[in-house]
Structures are given as structure tokens and as C-alpha cells.
Amino acid sequence: MITGFVKLFVTCTWAVIGFLIWVPLLMRMVAYFVGIVGLSTYQRVDVRQAQRRLDFATSFYARGFRQVQESVQSLDSEEHYDLIPHSEPIDLAHFFKTTVVDFVWAIAFWSFIYFVALKFVPHTNSNMIGGVQ
Known about the structure:
The protein has helices at residues 2-42, 48-76, 92-120. The mean pLDDT is 83. The protein contains three helices and no strands. It has 133 residues and is mostly helical. The longest helix has 41 residues, at 2-42. The protein has two domains: 1-78; 90-124.
């Protein structure tokens, strides 16, 4: 019962936060990929690294849902205390650096979208009822 609630809560949280991170990440990697492809038309540039980054960004959101599913399912088993038996230690400095960069980019992206929407999307007057003031 509690595992179902945890799964629902984490899935809903990921649906919102993951989306807010995924869209800017995807836009950034698309721009990066297009830039590398454009550069490769003028110079001999290997596009495989850019392709891997685009693949990562494309599958980021769906991978988050799979990770939630797998992690919460492992809570039902007796082996959940040994989820990552042979993992490498996390380089916290690198983790925080990339996390901060991704969050700053996401905030800048959504702020830009918000201000563009304010500028170009027509606003309705909430005092008007049925088009008559």
C-alpha cells in the first residue's frame, strides 16, 4: 500500500520536474547537434559525440520514468538494501557543477519562454464579460 503511494508520488513529481528539465535540455542538445552538423559541413568534425548527447537528451524523460519504476519495484523485494552493489563513487564536484548548469539553463529557458509569451500572446481583460465591459 505505502509502496504504491510512494510510486505514485515520485512518478507525479518526476512528471513535472523531469519535464521542466527535459525540454530545455532537449532544446540545448538539438542546437548543439545542429551546430556540430553545420560545422561538419565545412570541416572534418566527428558528429558521434553530438549524436550521443542528442540521444541522451531524447531519452532523458522516459528514462526517468523507467528509473522510478525499477527503483520502487525493488523496494518490494528483499534485495532493496543492495541496489547498487558495485557502483563507482560519485564525483560530487562534477555532479553539482553539471546539476547547477542544467538548472540555470532550465530557469533561463523557461524565463525566456515566459517573457516571450507575455510580449506576444494577446491578453484578455478579466473585467470583460461576454465581450462587453
